[in-house]
Amino acid sequence: MAEAGEQENLAHERGQLVRDLLEGKHIIMETDRAAVMKSVKPKAQYHFLVLPKEDIANVTALTRDHLDLLDHMEELANQAVAKYSAFPLSNFLVGFKMNQFMDRLNMHVISNDFYSPLLRGKLQWNNFNTELFLNFDYACAQLCCRGFIEPMPAKKQHELSLSAPIKCNQKGCDFSADNFFAFKPHIGFHWEQRNLQTSEQYAEALEMLEKMQLDNPTGHHRNWRSARQQPGPMIHPAQGKQYWKQRGPSGFQNQPQKLQPKQEDYSAKPQEANGNAPGSQKHTPFKQKKWKPKPKNEKKEQEQEQTASPKAGAQQKEPSATKTVEKPSEKQAES
Ligand SMILES: [Zn+2]
């Protein structure tokens, strides 16, 4: 009886994608032939699934007649990457699992960082980084030449899923580990490198923008900036090792760490100028008032309030004097 219940549960689990498709859940793009979903258990920063509406069981059920449908699915995948990720297409793996568990054929479109708290074991890594993952182009080539895709024997599937050592997938890196928990921090290492590179490029771009703002006030830089505001990564890698926690998701959403000193400089300037240049401090009077411990003498408090409030009022009426300071703080708010 217990076994029958287990079978039922498995069957239910296998049918989840089809139910989601019929109910329109997690769908970000759809045509009459296929749909793109966000994976509910992403194994990387970006993980999409492209499902055909035709009831095709898995990759081995494809025939030459499906090549046109596959073209269409690939086109959708390209659009999803362009629209919903901050990475170029070259950072994605596109293909099928040879050991697919779910009922409906589903094409994975997954970023190659594999930086996700939901990537928890060797099997999941090997699913995407061994022969268990059939590259889209290779699948199409097989269909073109032979007209079918040969199923992988269960024994080979089993061996590959447990195969060791686990090898790094990043270009020029030959790191490997026998144990997934020894390997996982290495994924974080590459992620950090990538973020570092991004923040350096971002800092350089901002510097260029600053110059542009001075030389060319045409507003073109605004288009540039809004183009950077892509939808963020789907998950927040909040679990795992300590340094994973310290890091936010990448891309241009989160302020790159390298820029933080710059921001502090901007906010520090008005404080330094406090008293010397009355027009230049914007936030300081408000903050001082808020953080101050309660004075015992009420009269003193009233006097201080009286001296503080005209200052604040005067600053609000002096937009021209604060102009140079405002620009950096606007940037803080935008980023
Ligand atoms: Zn590596």
UniProtKB/TrEMBL annotation:
**Compositional bias segments (type: Basic and acidic residues):** 324-335
Positions of region (Disordered): 216-335
A Pfam family recorded for this sequence: zf-C2HE
Q: Which GO terms describe its biological process?
A: single strand break repair
Q: Where is the Aprataxin C2HE/C2H2/C2HC zinc finger domain?
A: 129-193
Q: Which Gene3D superfamilies match?
A: HIT-like (3.30.428.10)
Compositional bias annotation for Polar residues: 251-260, 273-283
List, in alphabetical order, the Gene Ontology terms for molecular function in this entry: DNA 5'-adenosine monophosphate hydrolase activity; double-stranded RNA binding; mismatched DNA binding; single-strand break-containing DNA binding; single-stranded DNA binding
Q: Where is the composition biased (Basic residues)?
A: 284-294
Gene Ontology CC terms: nucleus
Under the heading InterPro entries, the entry gives: HIT-like_sf, Znf-C2HE
Name this protein carries in UniProt: Aprataxin-like protein
Q: Which organism is it from?
A: Drosophila lebanonensis
Gene label: LOC115624337
